[in-house]
Amino acid sequence: MVNIASVRADPAKTLLSPDDSVVLLVDHQPQMFFGTTSADRADIINATVGLAKAARVFDVPVVLTTVASKTFSGPLLPPLAELFPDTQPIDRTTMNCWEDPRVVEAVKATGRSRIVLAGLWTEVCVALASLSAVDQGYAVYVPTDACGGVSVEAHQNAVKRMVQHGIVPVTWLTTLLEWQRDWGRTETYDAVMEVVEAHAGAYGLGVVYAHAMFDQTAR
Question: Which residues, at least 6 apart from 77, have a Cβ–Cβ distance to it below 8 Å?
Fold first, then answer.
């Protein structure tokens, strides 16, 4: 039951903040996309790049990983490489990136307690890493639109499996808006709107229209 006397205007402790988040992007590579059929690949790329840009807006640290990039899966998605030219992806052999000490140390080094984790495939690289991180005490949020599986069933089953273990399914846009949370935060407002215009589909188009037609701040 609610204790009326203790109610106040505070956000839930489970909400993401730029100060406690780290983004872990796993295996957005050509060969992994070739096998992805759970959603339109262009939509997954758009969501992934939108998420990455959102992290840059809020100075959220980003850890990039690839698997067998030289022998099988190919290079990191070019738009991600362009966004983080000074970041070398951690190239692994393990399907579960949480079994690679370099990945774990990179996440630990950020000092953040909440991992926003997206990648390919949902049912393998994303699920295994998420389950492993949660098992060690991290809170994990998975933007499911920046993930993809070998089938719709595989993707959906992976999300269900993760939810059963307390992993939170989100989207790239809800992550961006949760980091912003208050339109009065003017220091990030313009940058957030740029990401929205470029990647948020109809919402972004609406922002473009409002700016063009009314020449005023739109949200």
Answer: 28, 29, 45, 48, 49
pLDDT at position 215: 66
Task: Tell me if 219 sits within 8 A of 183, measured CB to CB.
Answer: yes
pTM of the full predicted structure? 0.95
pLDDT greater than 80 at residue 92: yes
| Model pLDDT for residues 191-216, shown as the tens digit of each residue | 999 999 999 999 999 998 988 888 65
116 strand-pairing partners = 23, 141
The answer to whether 120 and 73 have CB atoms below 8 angstroms apart is no
CA gap 156, 190 in Å, rounded: 35
Catalytic residue selected from 60, 64, 76, 125:
125
Residue type, 102: R
Is 176 in contact with 146 (CB distance < 8 Å)? no
Among residues of the chain, what percentage have pLDDT more than 90? 94
Return the structure tokens found at 169: 């399914």
Specify the pLDDT at position 219: 55
Angle at 65 between CA 69 and CA 157, to 5 degrees: 100
Is 147 catalytic? The answer is no
